[in-house]
Design goal:
With 126 residues, the protein is α/β, with parallel strands linked by helices. The protein contains five helices and three strands. It is 39% helix and 13% strand. It has a three-stranded parallel beta sheet with strand order 2-1-3. It starts with 21 loop residues before the first helix and ends in a 5-residue tail after the last helix.
């Protein structure tokens, strides 16, 4: 059901879908064949194996996103071995670039939906 507070032209969000445009499809679209081609061009035609450090401490949604990302990598030929680190250990090492080959984390932002409300509604954050 459409949101009655949003005008009909914003039914799919306030901005036209980036992924519906040619450049957006090329940048954000899923193209396993192209990923394999690029890996082969880089000298990894058989793919490669790499460790990836991450923390499961962000949120369940982040863990789901990480699993989807790793599955996509695998389909392209990148066999990522997950090395789960405790949240504090992960943050205190990766911010200084101390990880084996690859780390995966949130890109900017916060796992908290509305930081301005957190302080008033989550007693432990005061």
């Amino acid at each position: 059901m459409p949101n009655p507070a949003s005008p009909p032209r914003y039914a799919s969000g306030p901005f036209p879908s980036i992924s519906s445009r040619p450049l957006g499809r090329r940048i954000y679209g899923r193209d396993v064949a192209e990923a394999k081609r690029l890996l082969a061009e880089a000298g990894f035609s058989a793919g490669f194996k790499t460790p990836v450090e991450a923390t499961m401490g962000w949120s369940p949604d982040y863990v789901d996103e990480l699993q989807v990302t790793m599955q996509s990598w695998k389909e392209a030929g990148i066999d990522a071995e997950l090395k789960n680190k405790e949240f504090g250990a992960f943050v205190s090492t990766t911010i200084f670039g101390k990880f084996d080959k690859l780390m995966h984390s949130l890109r900017g932002g916060s796992p908290i939906a509305d930081v301005s409300l957190q302080v008033t509604h989550v007693p432990a954050s005061r």
